[in-house]
């Protein structure tokens, strides 16, 4: 299991298109992917879960991946966050 | 009388001014009562859920295929994610299995938990998304119950509603309503996008429910400003009469233009035709005086049914031909990806470089035969008017194979007693760069060329405009694309075959002008683009268009060409 802390840096936060991108990417990996915000945990492969997390710009998230490709998954996901979901 | 005027405001979503009587739709949110099933019915309910899920997904996939706008694609793809969400699926299944709730109620309950969470947040983005989720929920539930909504709205009414599904909007359009006022609804909702394309004025985000209690109240809706007046005072009525008169004047100017002959400032004639996919679009073809149809898309009908219904297609082609006077109609053969064929489960790494268009039709000969039968029978009833267009040809043997199949079907039909129209021109769609580069050879086999500029651009520049990361590389005025068009043009000229353009560039006034500069005289576009294009073409001379074309061809890159085009257009408008 890998845990990593990350902050949401794109302006529009984690909804609509960025949420869709994140779920699409996470679903490509076999590992489970959990997002945690202030104690609230959601399945990162669930678009509804990610939407209801309602993470705004500046939110501090904890990412957790667990499974055979957990490292690759974590790297890819972190990169997506770092690139601000290719939006701004 | 005696009703006091009140004003409501909202967000303009589709422009226009309208007046009419208010008409309030029935409360449209589905409510499903809690109900349980016997234990032995559980497998049935699970199956009902899965088939409703598959049905809802299929409907969205169809919509995706019918829409070319990438924003719409994105929205629809997000809806598919909502349907296939792993958390909600296991939640629904557990409601059915463990609580023995009916499939309908389980879907209702599971989605509502998320809808409530989003609504409670009070954020506007969350409310837009909750509308999307509600529409997914309802389409799944309707998939089980088979129930339909919207009742008949009177012609000319101003519709007051909470929100609308795409199907509701289509129905209201057919009823001929004059404006739509929505309490909810996002600027990105499907209904709004459709209202724009049908030219129905629409205002969203109007909290009308607390104020407007009854239908039939007189209303003036100004969707340009996002304001509406219920029980308007006389002075407001006068103001709007004035505004409407002004709009009418502009319309008259457009009308005069539309009635005028298609001739450039120097007297060269040109032809403007319409791109059409649905029968509902035909009135607009007449309204804008399009000279027949330069591109009839045939995918929608096929995808609606999921199989090729020869009679239905024949009827569709006949109706189109009957309603377009004596003008030609160019029917494009099915241009679909193999993944849309029933019975195939195909995932390709590069669908746009994959099995699609003529490639599919040559492998699925029965489908090609069925479509040719429908086309040839329609042509027999309307001799001299039908042309066939073959999509996605990348190798000339494909076109020759098509011709063989055509001859075979034609003789089959003759043996069956159908009088086959002697010479139906078969055109080649120039959309793969290889064809443009070998245009001289292609011009020897094809009866005409039609430039499919959208695909030609994407294949030439290797950029998918739906992919945000590279969309800026997709440049319609890129000199490389225009060189290919020029090659096709010169080859057509030399071989003495006609050449048309049916891609999006034909509908953009300055690019249409550059196409005339190239010697092309026939353009096909969305009917609504015709007045704008015609205005520019009528007011200038071929020599101006040639200058513009030269500046595109001589540009170093797309950005430079784009600037030249923009500059030319600004000067042209003065």
What is this entry, summarized?
Chain A has 88 residues and is α+β, with helices and mostly antiparallel strands. Chain A contains 3 helices and 4 strands, in the order βαββαβα. Chain A has a 4-stranded antiparallel beta sheet, with helices on one face.
Report the total helices of chain A: 3
Shape of chain B: globular
Distance, first to last CA of chain B: 49 Å
On the 0 to 100 scale, the average pLDDT of chain A is 89
Beta percentage of chain B is 5-15%
Total number of strands of chain B: 16
Let me know the number of strands of chain A: 4
Name the structural class of chain A: alpha+beta
The most extensive interface between chains reads:
A-B, 18 and 21 residues
Order of helices and strands of chain A: EHEEHEH
Bin the helical content of chain B.
40-55%
Q: Helix tally of chain B? A: 22
Distance between the termini of chain A: 31 Å
- Strand order within the widest sheet of chain A? 1-4-2-3
